[in-house]
Design goal:
Elements: E1 3-7, E2 10-12, E3 18-25, E4 34-39, E5 45-51, E6 58-60, E7 68-73, E8 78-83, E9 92-99, E10 108-111, E11 115-119
Parallel strand pairs: 2-11
Antiparallel strand pairs: 1-3, 3-8, 4-5, 4-9, 5-6, 7-8, 9-10, 9-11
Length: about 120
């Protein structure tokens, strides 16, 4: 059974940093693309960042480029998202997804339960 368990969310002040983790199990983590999506209050899902399986190529939404870093530890089957200079617009529930292919932007197969990020002073 595929499982994705996010952690690391919380309350952070504007300009602060936070690192999210996603522990994966039930599939061969290293060969599949992985991504983070978020859902702000009252809005739909938005792709934040993805990383391919195999070549490890990362992609970022324009709104987070230069501030967020996605990386994966294939030895631990864990995906990370390090977020710097968080803005109030970055608040929401962050979900980890696993792609059905090596490319992270293929239709995702599974999504975790999410972790809440609140950006407020």
């Amino acid at each position: 059974e595929v499982q994705l368990v996010e952690s690391g969310g919380g309350l952070v002040q504007p300009g602060g940093s936070l690192e999210l983790s996603c522990a994966a199990s039930g599939f061969t983590f290293s060969i599949y693309g992985m991504s983070w999506v978020r859902q702000a209050p009252g809005k739909g899902l938005e792709s934040v960042s993805g990383v391919n399986g195999g070549n490890g190529r990362a992609t970022y939404a324009d709104s987070v480029k230069g501030r967020f870093t996605i990386y994966r530890d294939n030895t631990k089957s864990t995906l990370y998202l390090h977020m710097n200079h968080l803005e109030p617009e970055g608040a929401g529930v962050y979900y980890c997804t696993n792609s059905s292919k090596a490319n992270w932007d293929a239709p995702y197969a599974c999504r975790g339960q999410g972790t809440q990020v609140t950006v407020s002073s």
